[in-house]
Amino acid sequence: MEPHEDETLRGLTEVVLGELAAGRVRRGGPLPAGGPAAVKVCVTGRVGSVLPQVGIGAEVALRELTRALVLGSADSAEAWCVGHLHCAALPVAVAADLAASALNPSMDSWDQAPAASVIEAEVVAALAALIYPEAVAPDAVITSGATESNLVAVLLARETARASGGSAVQVVCGDNAHHSVARAAWLLGLPKPITVDCPTGVLAPAEVGRALRGHRRWPVLVVATAGSTDAGLIDPLSELADVVAAHGAWLHVDAAYGGPLLFSDELRSRLAGVGAADSVAFDLHKFGWQPVAAGVLAVRDAAVLAGLAHHTEYLNADDDLAAGLPDLLGRSIRTSRRPDAFKIAVTMRALGKAGLAGLVEHCVCAAEKFAQIVDTHPRMRRRPGAVGISTVLFRPVAADELGFEEGDALVSRVRRELLAEGRAVLGRARVADSDGRIKLWLKATLLHPQTSGDDLAPLLDLVADLAG
Ligand SMILES: *Cc1c(COP(=O)(O)O)cnc(C)c1O
Question: Which GO terms describe its molecular function (predicted)?
């Protein structure tokens, strides 16, 4: 690229940074007020046709669309934007992603990504070793997130079964498992998963044992969850691993949320047993402060990745591979692929394991503190039980005083009012109360490295006022 093009990028980057700073102040809250209709008017009124006959020029287009984007964003950098596993991206990761975009390596062949493929190999080796410190030959591949990781895990289990003459795989998971697990089975043409009820929020090993004893037709893949999306709860991985091993089944752990606890010496024991899993999904765009996408699928035995093997003349010809060019196509179900490992590498090197552990521990502590604040709030009630990683579920006492349906409707209405007023993004989760009844809860997922539990205390008063 000509040097003057780098200068163009520098100027345009300044435009973006200027708009980000100004827009965040002007928005004055975690999301735009007014709901979908108002935001649509605001964006289209500001921007006009996105495909004009004659372009308006880079700087003007970038300025006006960035302004619309920042004014209209649900901004995960805001303390009261806690609805989802939606994190603020670290500046170091964003800057690294700029370099990746500018050079645009594509991870489907070495001749499009010479250094990026080395960096990716280093990143997956480090993460595979983090997840599987005792395994002989662990490996990992980069994915677009845990949806793809879960799909590829089911695919690898199926291919492993096929290699020994099997025709299908039966997925067994808890009702706490992520929806992408059932979708993976559907996409791969496999039978519907056997779903085990989880009244406590986590998968009970005895129930899994029962399901495994009742199924003899096909090889089984059991999916455990380390950090449920709704409640942040972690299945008892060690006990599950024993049950699954006794039945010769495949164990996949969906640690999309909980995986980064492994960075922390203090917290990694919460994932004890994860190393016994055949495969593990691990996201860094949730509890790892990366821009989307930053997914990882780790496997205990690199040999199972043979299930992804695929050959095409122009990307991984046999003679090129024999001459030493690495086979990148066989490491993904995608072809063109962003170098997402690059920002992960820069972040891990910048912060180190200790730095990442500090961020993870901060969020876990902030959630514990927030849970205490909910517990002492006269008009709020927390879902009984331990805090799940950094997720706190609660509902207004006023909702408990109504019938079940009316109570849930009140919770749902309060959440939408906060959105409509641009005051806060809270999530919603339908999970069991201590009486066994499934109820609707407000969900706060604390992922911001600078937000404390106290920062969210006034939000409880606001929720209580809206609940009346
Ligand atoms: C978010 C999530 C997923 C899906 O991951 P994506 O990165 O959004 O594809 C899967 N499993 C769990 C437990 C999750 O929380």
Answer: transaminase activity
Please indicate whether residue 295, judged by its CB atom, sits closer than 6 Å to ligand 1: yes
280 lines ligand 1 (CB under 6 A): no
Asked whether 229 lines ligand 1 (CB < 6 A), one says yes
pLDDT in tens, 218-258: 899 999 999 999 999 999 999 999 999 999 999 999 999 99
- Report whether residue 147 contacts ligand 1, using a CB cutoff of 6 Å: yes
Q: Is the CB of 85 under 6 A from ligand 1?
A: yes
Pocket test for ligand 1, best of 148, 261, 283, 286 (most atoms within 8 A of CB): 283
CA of 146 to the centre of ligand 1 (A): 5
Beta bridge partners of 282: 255, 296
Please tell me whether the overall predicted TM-score, pTM, comes out greater than 0.85 for this model. Answer: yes
Question: For residue range 42-86, what is the model confidence (pLDDT) as tens digits?
Answer: 999 989 899 999 999 999 999 999 999 999 999 999 999 999 999
Distance (Å) from CA 272 to ligand 1 centroid: 20
Could you tell me the distance, in angstroms and rounded to a whole number, from the CA of residue 372 to the centre of ligand 1? 27
Provide the β-strand partners of residue 199: none
Return the residue whose CA atom lies nearest to atom 3 of ligand 1.
146
Q: Is 254 in the pocket of ligand 1 (CB under 6 A)?
A: yes
What string of H, E and C letters represents the secondary structure of the chain?
Answer: CCHHHHHHHHHHHHHHHHHHHHHHHHHCCCCCCCHHHHHHHHHHHHHCCCCCCCCCCHHHHHHHHHHHHHHCCCCCCCCCECCCCCCCCCHHHHHHHHHHHHHCCCCCCHHHCHHHHHHHHHHHHHHHHHHCCCCCECEEEEECCHHHHHHHHHHHHHHHHHHCCCCCCEEEEECCCCHHHHHHHHHCCCCCCEEECCCCCCCCHHHHHHHHHCCCCCCEEEEEEECCCCCCCECCHHHHHHHHHHCCCEEEEEECCCHHHHHCCCCHHHHCCHHHCCEEEEECCCCCCCCCCCEEEEECEHHHHHHHCCCCHHHHCHHHHHCCCCCCHHHCCCCCCCCHHHHHHHHHHHHHHHHHHHHHHHHHHHHHHHHHHHHCCCCEEECCCCCECCEEEEEEHHHHCCCHHHHHHHHHHHHHHHHHCCCCECEEEEEECCCCCEEEEEEEECCCCCCCCHHHHHHHHHHHHHHC
Distance 320 CA to ligand 1 centre (A): 36
